[in-house]
Amino acid sequence: MICPCEKKGETSVVDSRPTEDGTAIRRRRLCECGERFTTFERVQFRELTVVKKSGRKSAFDREKLSKSIYIALKKRPIDTDTVEKFITKISRALEELGQSEISSNTVGTMVMDGLKELDPVAYVRFASVYRNFREEKDFVQFVDKINVIKNK
To answer: H/E element holding 152?
Structure first.
């Protein structure tokens, strides 16, 4: 494993244990430079391909999913373990669909549904990018729709 700080070097495993939900192995590593970092080892059931709205296809990237979720949850009171479990839940649900090609709409909908339960502010943040709000009125209409559903 390459050290993320010096981008080279030999690393050794200091500690290894399963994650709380048992879906991955968490490894604490130590580099020759003295830096410590964590890696995760997960089972990958099949190669997933995401089909974009334009028809373009790209390999499913858990890191890209993770980045977008962490951006939506920035400065929110949600701990890292909860976020990692959420990301794993989404990844597993996509794999369990049994399809090798999944629409970006399916991924986005799963994330939005999960964020709605996890953190309403993150839900709105993610939706503003995912739904591509262009004007203030788009944002206001979306929030009003949420309030109507919530008040029923």
So the answer is: none
Q: Rounded to two decimals, what is the model's pTM?
A: 0.67
**pLDDT single digits (tens) 93-109:** 998 888 999 999 999 99
Per DSSP bridges, beta strands 57-59 and 36-42 are unpaired
What is the span of the domain harbouring residue 8? 1-43
What tens digit of pLDDT does each residue of 35-64 get?
999 988 877 667 899 999 899 999 999 999
- 13 and 75 share a domain? no
Residue 30: which of 16, 13, 17 has the closest Cα?
13
Q: Do 37 and 27 contact (CB within 8 A), yes or no?
A: no
Q: Of 21, 17, 1, 20, whose CA–CA distance to 9 is shortest?
A: 1
pLDDT given at position 102: 96
* 18: helix, strand or coil: strand
For residue 19, the one-letter residue type is T
Joined together, the tokens standing for residue 21 give 């939900």
* CB of 38 closer than 8 Å to CB of 27: yes
